[in-house]
Amino acid sequence: MADPMAYFFELYDALPRGGPGDNASTRKAFKLVKELPEKPRILDLGCGPGMQTLELARLSKGKIIALDNHQPFLDKLNHDARRLGLSAYIETLNQDMNQLSFPPESFDLLWSEGALYFMGFENGLKKCRGLLKKNGSMAVTELVWLRPDPPGEIKQAHLSEYPALTGIENNMAMIKKAGYRLIGHFTLPDSSWTKKYYEPMGEKIKELEKKYPPGHEARTVFSGCQREIDLFRKYSRYFGYEFFVMKAAS
User: Where do the DSSP E strands lie in the chain?
Assistant: First the structure.
């Protein structure tokens, strides 16, 4: 019996993004960041295949450390960076987010789209605070409840995977408690989930289902991913990703 994660990555390695997002939202968040040096030093935590890393390279012309612990994602990012002429701005690093080895005050900007939850939002904010230089900034997307009354089906589905899931106001309080000043925040549009993430995922699931017969263990993995797509279509008004942009408080 194969490791179920092998089937998970067979699906995810083929997707353009590792989670909901889009270049327009990356640009919008970057514009909220203030007082960056001309060539900032940036850490992209949990970069995945690096769609947002490439956009950050175009926007910042700084030095980006793109960190992930799945080498095929980093290989794809390196390939795309070379193809687009952006390799000079990007250095990939295979490292666990929970075992960061950088010295204090290493970065002008920390970035994490859809990945900080691997550390836990509150814990991640605390651990990253010390990595920022004076007046450094951080921009992250975090899954949030958009309404206080989610139906039982979606509430149970999300809390079983991420018990710390909470509302925007609670996340804002955690940001302040961890030593940051919130600069701005906005909710990713539904198209960030559909056009850039779930539609490519749905097409890849159909393709892989032709490869693996009914009853194969891979089908269980793909069914779980398809259920995620179906729940979003049904309940998207109740949850979403919020982009939080903050600055280290002095």
Answer: 41-45, 63-68, 90-94, 107-113, 132-145, 166-167, 180-187, 239-248
pLDDT of residue 250: 78
Give the number of residues written for the chain.
250
- Write the pLDDT tens digit of every residue in 78-112: 999 999 999 999 999 999 999 999 999 999 999 99
Percent of the chain with pLDDT over 90: 93
Element housing 57 (H / E): helix 51-60
Find residue 180's DSSP bridge partners. 248
Flag whether the pTM goes above 0.85.
yes
| Nearest residue to 241 via CA among 29, 49, 61 | 29
Separation of alpha carbons 196 and 232, rounded Å: 14
Which option is the CATH number for 19-190+239-248: 3.40.630.30, 3.30.420.40, 3.40.50.80, 3.40.50.150?
A: 3.40.50.150
Q: Give the other-Cβ count within 10 Å of 76's Cβ.
A: 19
What single string gives the DSSP state of each residue in 98-134?
A: GG--PPSS-EEEEEEES-GGGT-HHHHHHHHHTTEEE
Q: What residue ranges do the domains of the chain occupy?
A: 19-190+239-248
How far apart, in whole angstroms, are the C-alpha atoms of residue 40 and residue 36? 6
3-class DSSP state of 193 = helix
Q: Dump pLDDT digits (tens) for 230-241.
A: 999 999 999 999
